[in-house]
Structure formats: C-alpha cells, structure tokens
From TrEMBL:
Function: Modifies, by uridylylation and deuridylylation, the PII regulatory proteins (GlnB and homologs), in response to the nitrogen status of the cell that GlnD senses through the glutamine level. Under low glutamine levels, catalyzes the conversion of the PII proteins and UTP to PII-UMP and PPi, while under higher glutamine levels, GlnD hydrolyzes PII-UMP to PII and UMP (deuridylylation). Thus, controls uridylylation state and activity of the PII proteins, and plays an important role in the regulation of nitrogen metabolism.
Pfam families in UniProt: GlnD_UR_UTase (PF08335), HD (PF01966), NTP_transf_2 (PF01909)
Domain of life of the source: Bacteria
Domain ACT: from-to ranges: 681-761, 790-858
UniProt name for this protein: Bifunctional uridylyltransferase/uridylyl-removing enzyme
EC number(s) on file: 2.7.7.59, 3.1.4.-
Keyword Hydrolase: yes
PROSITE patterns cross-referenced by the UniProt entry: ACT (PS51671), HD (PS51831)
Length: 858
C-alpha cells in the first residue's frame, strides 16, 4: 500500500519535532537533571510520536497500541529499544496487515528503534505460557492508544493466567543463568551495567516477581509490606538511581544503545559525573569504584529480598531445620540468627556466623534475616570490635578450617565484613588494575589467589596441579599461606611499592593475631617477595648455576621455597585466564626443583649437571634405537650452554633428528606438538647468519604463531640449532595437523624462496591496549661476566612485535643467543641474551636502543 503524500509530510514534521524535543531533554539531563525525570519524559515523548504515527496511518479503533517491557513501565533510557505490541481483536479486519506495516515503517522513519509484535489476546497468552521473556514483557504492559476495552480484556486474562509461584521460580533460575554468563561477579573490568550481577536487571527482577505476586511494584510498597526496611528501601533507591544515571550517560556519550561500560568510554563517562584524575587515580578508576560499591550493595540487598519473597510465596518450606546454638539456627540450608538483635548484643557473633558457616555440613549460605542483621550491624564493626581478642581468635579460626575458607571469605567480602575487619582490604574493594595483566579488581584477585591455594588441598582438584597438591599436603599450617595471599596485593594503589607497604600490614596482622616466630617471618617475607620467583623463572637464565645459587640463598629453606612456589603459581593463575600456561608452569617447577637440590646440599656445578643431562638423554636415545655413539657427531659440536638450556627429553629429540645431518647443506625444520601444554615445538638447524632469528620470527608472525619461548644455540662449526615454542593465536588449532605444514613452509623460507626479511607490519593494538598504553621501555646492558648483553623490552603486545625487535637486531648484525618471551595479558616483558661482539661500542648501543624504541612504539 503506497503512503499518501499528506502522511509523508506529517511524518517529516513529526520526525523533526521528535528529534528537537529529544535533544532538549538530553541537554537538560547533561545539566544535572534527574534521571527518573529524563526517562519518564523520553517515554512520554515517544508515546506522543507513536500516537502521531498511529493516527496518521488511520488504524481502526478496535486495535490497541501497547507499550511492553521497560517502555511499559513508562521509562526509557536515551537509546533503549522501544518495545511495542499491536493488540488485535480476534475478528479479522480487511487490509489490516498493510496498514500495520505502514505504521511500523513510519515509526522507524521517525527515528524510533522498535521491537514490535502483532498478536491477538489469545496469541499473547499462548506465547507467555511458553516463554518467560514474553511473560515478563507483558507483565508491565501499558496502553498508549486504541481500544481501552481490548486492553482491559487482555489485562484481566493475563492476570488470571499468571502463576506467581512458577513465575518466581522461572525468574530466579533465569537470574542464576544470567549471573553465570558473567562469572557470578559484579567486578568485571568492563561490566554490563544492565545484565551483570548487581546491575539494573537484578533490581527489575525483584519488582517483576513482587508485582506478579501482588506484593507491590515499588520499593516504598515493599517497605510497607515488610519485605524490606525503610533503610534498605532508601539504599535501593539510591543505588538504582546511580545505575540508571550511569546507563543514561553511557548511552548519550556512546550515541547509541550501549550497556557495557567498555574501557574506551569509562573516562568520558567518569568526567561527565565530575570525576577528575588525581596523581594516583584516573577519573575512570574513581567511577568504577563507585559502580562496584553500588553493584555490591545491590547484590546484598537483592539476596535479602529474594529470600524474603520466597519465604512468603512458599511458607511451608521456611521452618527451622535445626538449632545450632543459642545464637544460630538452620533454616532449609541457610544460617539464621536466633534473634534480630544478636549482633548488637554480642558483636563476636558476627565472625562466629562465618565460622559456623564453614563448620556446619549442609549450610550453604546466610539467610535473609542474617544478611539484614549484618547489613544493619555495620556500625558495630568499629575499632574496638577489630581489637577484641576474641574476634582476632575467630578470624584466625576461619582461616584455619579444613573446608570452606574460600566461600567464607568471599561471603565476608560480599557482606562488607571482611573490609570492616581488615581496613586496608576495604581500601582495595572495587579498585581496578590497569596493568593489562590483571582482569579482576584487587579484592577479587586476592580472593582468587586464595581460592587457587585452597584448591591445591582439595582432593577433587588434585589432577589439575598434582605437584602443587603434593607440596601443600606436606606443608604444615597452610593457613600461613592464606594470610600471605590476603596481604600480597593489599597495598596496591597507595602510591608506593605495594610489596614493601604490604609487608608492614602483614607484620602488624601477625603481631596482633599471635602468628609468631618463623611463621610470622614467612608471611612478611612472602608479601615482600611474592613477585620474585616469577621474575627469576621468566626473565633470568636459570641454566646458569649462579642464578640458582643466588635464588637459593634468598629463600634459605625448603619450607620457604615451597611457600613461595605455591603462592607464585596461585598468583599468576589468579591474574587472568590468558596469562597462565603450561610453559610458565614448567619454568617455575624447574626453578623449584633446581633450587631444592641446592638447598639439599647439591653444589650448582655446570659439569655435573652437564653429565647428568647427557646420561639421561642417552638413555632416551637407546629407547629410540639410535646407534651406539651416534650422538657424538653432533654433541662434539655443542657447548656446555646448549646442554644446560635444554632438558634431557629435548636433547634426545633433537639428537635423533640431527645426528645424521650434522654437515647438511640444506635447512632442517622439524615440528611436533609440545610435550608441555597446547603449543608447537619447532626445531631449526641451518647454517647460521645474523638475520636468521629475525627471518624465523617473520615466518611465525605471518602465520599467526606467537612465540612463547626461544632457545638459540650456535655450534662450533657455524650452524644454528634453534628451538622455539609457539602457540597459534586461535585456541581451537590442532598442532599435530599443522606441524607438517610449518616444517615445509619454514624450510622453504630459509632455503631462500622469497625475501628473508620482509618489511614488518605493525599489527593493530587491542582495544584494551589502545585505552591503557604501556610506555615502551628498552634496557640494554652487559651481563656480570661481559660475555653477553641482556636486552629487556616492555611494551603493549601486538602482532609483529617480536619480529620488529628481531629485525632491528639483525640489521645491526647482533646475534640472539636466547630469548624469553613473556606475555602478560596485553603486555609483553621480553628478555633477550645477545652476543656481546660489537655491543661494547657505546654509539652502537645507543643506536640499537633508539631504533628498538621506534620499532616497538605504537
């Protein structure tokens, strides 16, 4: 059906009026107008535009135009979808479909992003019965225009069909599934402020289920009914207002519907709130801290409300299951206080609740009554309460329990008890870390590290890290490790070295809680040195006996070494799912075992280690039916460093491949799935030349293979024997399938087909790296013996970075002896051992450093 010219003229006028009116509303909001006023005004404006389009299309009066979803509540965020229902009578109407299509098209022409459905009342009820999303959207249906009688018929039939109990159960299940999609935490660094735990959707869900049960549709009504207190209602309104304002400002700044608070927009949104950057905190960090506190409060209060609603809907399942003490009972698996004033009368009961939660089988959480009492007892948790010897005993008891420590501490954090007991912990709740390495806030990272330590002790998880599980099983008083985990990052954000500042906090805690002697010293030392083991393993040459000897001197004893190793593994695994890999695990375990041998009295002697590895490699070669003494042709050409940098299994594999090709004129490339984790091990044997390392890196870069580790050796007769560990940037690659392809392509490249050193392409930085760029750093200095130079590079990670570095070195004929490629999330901390020939010239050093800085710059 064609659109009459008069309608098009009217539509043009409507569109212009709508655009101007909406712009005025948004401008008024920018000048500190109330968000509820804005959302109601946007809904009214949209109503008016829709009515204009409805009338222009001359739709019959027997139909009804209905707002559903958030629009049905009479609220609209600046760029929300507009959900409408065209409600039809059961009797068919001629040419109706064409007219409805014209109306919807006209509404889109006005700039309204519609989500539309066209149904009869019966169809609505059928859809609602089968789909909880439709049932929820129709709950808040509101007539905009059209037949009031038809809408009333719909409302009555919908209400009659609605089962409040089934609706509640379906919405709670839906909420749990939604929370699981967001890792059950409100502390994502880029949260969805609508859908994440503690977001607007949680608040909307509560009002949906209370409205369905006819308990009320506002916080004021729920307060009047006794489901929440007046104080809780005020807290809910305040945090809801903040979240709505945040979402509105996010929409306006993004210029579109945008509910994920991405890094790119955090700073502009923060500035729109009036936050200013300080010497220690970005404006975005201040905003996000406010957001996390709001989301945390919403999570607490929503838990209370949902339990209270459930108790009213299902009264028969809300009785006391058993009496636990004079202070506590269990109700259907939830720990509940015996009287409302127990925490006020006996403040020690606050920590006792969490200890009892750990110790009582079958208790899976705190009841709404207990949570509410904790929420209202916040002022009781003061300095006197923290200094009470009984509370100090209880807190230490919580850490000493054989089960439930992680769950108890997480619950203590959610209820703000942990931050009120440890004031410095309270300072890092919701604190972001913009190091491109951690993906959790500081408090969540700390609790993740503690969780990782605890999992080593749990039999069901022993298969994940069997060596760590074995070590912790023999570790006396493991709670010492948990204390160190609590304090290892507690001083972040104070403007100094967090390891040094955290030591003072840990020392004070140990003194106040009676952790004395070696245990107290160990906790403080672990906080001070918690970064050391990973730095030694990933940045130093651990094949050098002097490195192992120095590290052994630092740790001093097997117990302290084990404690540092377990904390280090837990810490790296607690930063980001992307940071930990099997190769890093092997580096740490190798360092642990080598250091343990020295602590046990073994002398770190290169010759004895050389002989041991050669004997182990020979034993493996005999299993491969390699002829007796066949290895000599290759081994006579290798120096001690080669044998110290490779383990026996790698030496055996490389020898089996090469012993018949020691003088080969053509390149040899062999690849196999790595014995350590998901990666590909690539062996390259070819006549050496200065640009070889760069050429190999160029191939890996062009084929989306990221170098995890490189061990470069040069034989006495001028061949390069290089070993690389590479991983594909795509996670679902089968390395056995690509090994043959890598062998053929890389061999062809090294044989001279095509340019050996193509121009490096600067790959795009990730969005996170663009928002939080790392200042590129290059440090080139001679090692202690002056034989080699150590090059340290720090920069944002990006495709082609390693090749860009290698190319600069090749152009200046600087040989790479070994490389440690250390990727930390979106940041790299690479270390190269370079041949010292020529680098003693200061001018060359400066030139190399300058060109490297230029090559790694964004």
């Amino acid at each position: 059906m064609s659109v009459p010219a008069v309608v098009l003229t009217h539509a043009s006028s409507l569109r212009a009026d709508y655009k101007v009116a909406k712009a005025l509303l948004l401008e008024r909001f920018r000048s500190a107008a109330n968000v509820d006023s804005l959302m109601r005004a946007l809904a009214r404006l949209t109503d008016s535009a829709l009515v204009g389009a409805w009338n222009a299309c001359e739709l019959p009066g027997s139909l009804a135009l209905v707002a559903v979803g958030g629009f049905g509540r009479g609220e609209l965020a600046p760029h929300s979808d507009i959900d409408i229902l065209v409600l039809l009578p059961d009797e068919p109407i001629a040419h109706l479909e064409a007219r409805i299509e014209r109306f919807i098209g006209l509404a889109w022409d006005l700039g309204l992003e519609l989500g539309s459905s066209v149904r009869t009342v019966s169809q609505c009820l059928d859809e609602a019965a089968n789909d909880i999303t439709v049932r929820t959207a129709l709950l808040e249906a509101r007539r905009i225009t059209g037949s009031a009688a038809l809408f009333e018929d719909f409302s009555q039939r919908y209400r009659a069909a609605l089962d409040p109990l089934a609706f509640f159960q379906a919405k709670v299940l839906e909420m749990r599934q939604r929370h699981a999609r967001y890792q059950d935490t409100p502390y994502a660094l880029e949260p969805n402020i609508k859908e994440s735990p503690g977001g607007l959707r949680d608040l909307q869900l509560i009002l949906w289920v209370t409205q369905a049960a006819q308990f009320g549709s506002s916080w004021r009504e729920l307060d009047a009914r006794g489901l929440i207190t007046g104080r809780e209602a005020r807290e809910l309104r305040r945090n809801e207002g903040f979240l709505k304002t945040l979402r509105a400002r996010l929409h306006i700044i993004a210029g579109r519907r945008q509910d994920i608070l991405v890094f790119d927009l955090q700073n502009p949104v923060a500035e729109s709130f009036g936050y200013k950057a300080t010497a220690t905190k970005r404006a975005s960090e201040q905003l996000m801290r406010r957001y996390y506190w709001a989301a945390k409060a919403v999570t607490q209060l929503a838990t209370i409300l949902i339990q209270n609603i459930e108790a009213q809907l299902f009264p028969k399942t809300s009785n006391v299951t058993r009496v636990l003490s004079d202070r506590f009972v269990e109700k259907q698996g939830m720990l509940e206080i015996a009287t409302d004033d127990v925490f006020e009368r006996e403040p020690n009961a606050i920590l006792e609740a969490f200890l009892l939660y750990e110790k009582t089988p079958g208790v899976k959480g705190l009841s709404a009554r207990t949570l509410r009492a904790l929420y209202n007892a916040r002022e009781m948790m003061d300095q006197h309460w923290r200094r009470d010897p009984e509370n100090r005993r209880l807190f230490l008891d919580i850490l000493k329990q054989p089960e439930g420590v992680t769950h108890a501490l997480r619950l203590m954090n959610q209820t703000s008890v942990l931050g009120r007991y440890l004031l410095n912990f309270r300072r890092i709740v919701g604190q972001m870390q913009h190091d491109l390495y951690h993906v959790y806030t500081v408090d969540q990272h700390i609790l993740m590290v503690l969780r990782n330590l605890r999992r080593f002790s749990v039999a069901e998880h022993a298969h994940e890290y069997p060596f760590c599980s074995q070590l912790i099983a023999n570790f006396e008083r493991p709670y010492v490790l948990y204390v160190a985990a609590l304090f290892h990052d507690i001083a972040k954000g104070r403007g100094g070295d967090h390891s040094t500042l955290g030591m003072a906090d840990a020392r004070r805690f140990c003194r106040e809680h009676g952790i004395e002697g070696d245990d107290g010293k160990l906790v403080v030392w672990l906080v001070q040195q918690h970064l050391t083991m990973s730095q030694v393993a990933q940045k130093q040459d651990t094949s050098d006996p002097e490195v192992i000897k120095a590290f052994a001197g630092l740790v001093g004893s097997e117990r302290w070494l084990t404690a540092l190793y377990l904390l280090t593994v837990s810490d790296i695994r607690g930063t980001s799912p992307k940071v930990w890999n099997a190769w890093k695990g092997k580096l740490l375990e190798d360092l642990y075992r080598a250091t343990l041998a020295v602590l046990g009295g073994a002398r770190p002697d290169a010759n004895s280690e050389l002989k041991s590895r050669q004997e182990q490699a020979l034993a493996l070669l005999r299993l491969e039916t390699v002829p007796e003494n066949a290895q000599r042709a290759l081994w006579d050409k290798l120096d001690v460093g080669y044998f110290l940098r490779h383990d026996a299994a790698d030496i055996a594999w490389q020898t089996r491949v090469l012993y018949r090709h020691v003088e080969t004129p053509t390149p040899i490339v062999r690849a196999r799935p790595s014995p350590i984790g998901e990666a590909l091990q690539v062996l390259v044997y070819v006549k050496d030349r200065p640009d070889l390392f760069a050429a190999i890196c160029a191939y890996f870069d062009r084929n989306a293979l990221s170098v995890l580790d490189s061990r470069v050796s040069t034989t006495r007769h001028g061949y390069a024997l290089d070993n690389f560990l590479v991983a594909h940037t795509e996670e679902d690659v089968h390395y056995r399938d690509i090994a043959n392809l890598v062998e053929q392509q890389l061999c062809a490249r090294l044989s001279g087909e095509g340019p050996l050193l193509p121009e490096p392409s600067k790959g795009r930085l990730s969005r996170l790296s663009r928002t939080f760029p790392v200042t590129p750093r290059v440090d080139l200095r001679a090692d202690e013996r002056g034989q080699y130079y150590i090059l340290s590079v720090s920069a944002n990670d990006r495709p082609g970075l390693l090749y860009s570095i290698a190319r600069v070195l090749a152009e200046h004929r600087v040989g790479v002896h070994a490389a440690r490629i250390n990727t930390l999330g979106e940041r790299v901390e690479d270390v190269f051992l370079l041949d010292g020939h020529g680098l003693s010239d200061n001018r060359l050093q400066i030139q190399v450093e300058t060109e490297l800085l230029r090559a790694i710059a964004v």
